């Protein structure tokens, strides 16, 4: 057994799905040619498993996936630097960081599209507050870790920010943070 199981009566990640994904990740990590790999740092970050009683502990699997994502990101960075060179790699990361910064320094309440007042989105105040932390990280090196970005949670709000946009930005922030480690 790769991970501890969820406590009795609790839901955990489907064991077969987790094991299949980890096997795919092992094959991808050891593949000679990165072009044939279907598993990347991005796919690891966005992977989801079915919840089942008696499944693997979500906390343990999530922690392992974060370490796996870090390892894949480092390997992807090394391969791209070997192909393109340091300057090109960091120029691309800087360009993406600037796009993020341009978004998060927009006026409060206007950083992302809003959903209708009949629909739940992310709390505008919560997202704006976290956006300030992201801006501080990129502008002046204030402390922020990939773990902070991966685990941030926003309260729901009618008429709040469109979740897909915010989630995409958070994924991009994580990608940039891992790219320049």
UniProtKB/TrEMBL annotation:
It is found in: Cytoplasm. Keywords: Cell cycle, Cell division, Coiled coil, Cytoplasm. The keyword Nucleus does not apply. InterPro entries: CHP03543, DivIVA_domain, DivIVA_fam. Belongs to the DivIVA family. This is Cell wall synthesis protein Wag31. It comes from Homoserinibacter gongjuensis.
């Amino acid at each position: 057994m790769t991970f501890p199981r969820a406590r009795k009566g609790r839901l955990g990640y489907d064991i077969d799905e987790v094991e299949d994904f980890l096997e795919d990740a092992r094959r991808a990590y050891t593949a000679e040619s990165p072009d044939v790999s279907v598993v990347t740092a991005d796919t690891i970050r966005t992977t989801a498993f079915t919840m089942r009683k008696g499944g693997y502990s979500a906390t343990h699997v999530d922690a392992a996936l974060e370490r796996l994502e870090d390892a894949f990101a480092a390997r992807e960075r090394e391969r791209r630097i070997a192909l393109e060179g340091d300057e090109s790699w960091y120029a691309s990361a800087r360009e993406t960081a600037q796009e993020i910064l341009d978004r998060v320094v927009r006026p409060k309440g206007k950083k992302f599209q809003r959903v209708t007042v009949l629909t739940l989105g992310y709390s505008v105040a919560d997202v704006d507050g976290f956006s300030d932390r992201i801006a501080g990280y990129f502008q002046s090196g204030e402390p922020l870790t990939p773990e902070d970005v991966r685990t941030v949670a926003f309260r729901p709000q009618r008429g709040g920010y469109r979740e897909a946009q915010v989630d995409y930005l958070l994924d991009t922030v994580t990608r940039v943070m891992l790219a320049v480690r």
